[in-house]
Amino acid sequence: MDASIILQKIRRKGFLITPSGSQISIKPKKLLNGRMIAFLQAHKNMLLTALYQEQDNAKILHQKKMRALHPGRLHVLKMHIQHRLRAEKHYTPTDKEINDSLGTILVESDYDLENAISTHQFAIDLYTQTSLETAITCDACKHFSPDRIGDGAGIGSCELKVPWTQGNNGRVPLYRYARRHCDGFIMSTANLLEGRP
Length: 197
What we know:
This protein is mainly alpha-helical. It folds into 3 domains: 3-65, no CATH class; 69-133; 136-194, no CATH class. The protein is built from 7 helices and 7 strands, in the order αββαααααβββββα. The strands form 3 sheets. A 3-stranded antiparallel β-sheet has the order 4-5-6, with no helix packed on it. Strands 1-2 form a two-stranded antiparallel sheet. It has a two-stranded antiparallel sheet with strand order 3-7. Strand 4 (144-146) and strand 5 form a beta hairpin. Helix 1 packs across helix 3 and helix 4 (71-89) packs across helix 5. The protein is elongated and about 75 Å long. Residues 165-172 and 192-197 have low confidence and may be disordered.
C-alpha cells in the first residue's frame, strides 16, 4: 500500500491532512465517518511517516529554489514585505514574520521572483492609497491625550497603546498632527461639536 497515493486520495476528498507531533490532524472533522477514522487509526504510523517525509522534501526543495534566486532581488521582495507588514500591523515586523511571509509568497508564486515583487508592489501601492484616503490625525481622536510635558503642541499618547515605531510599548509619544491610518480612531467629542472632519 503506497502511503503517497492514500494521501492523494484523502486530499482529493477535500481533506487537509497534516502531521502534529505523534498524531495526524485532519480537517474538516465533520466529514469523517467511522470507516475513515478506523482506516486512519490502522495506518497511522505509515501515514505519519509519509507526511513528515513530505515536509522534509518540501523544505529541501524550498532551500534549493531559494539558493537559485538572485540575492539582490530577494532583498527587494523582503523590503516590500517588511513595508506591507509594518503598514498593516503598525509596528516593525520581526525577521521571523518577514521570512514566514516570504516563504508563503514564494511558494504561492512558484518561486517566480519578479512576479512576486510586482504583485506585492501593487498590493503595497493599493494599501498606501487606501490608507491615505482614510487617513486621520491623532489630535482628532478621543483616545489621544496631549503630553503634559512641554507645551503639548506636538506629541501625546494613545489610550489604545497604538505603537508608532519598533520597540515601543505604546507609551512612546505620538505626533498629534501626523496623518495616519488607524482602525481604532473615534472622533473626540470636542471635534464632533466643532464639526471637524
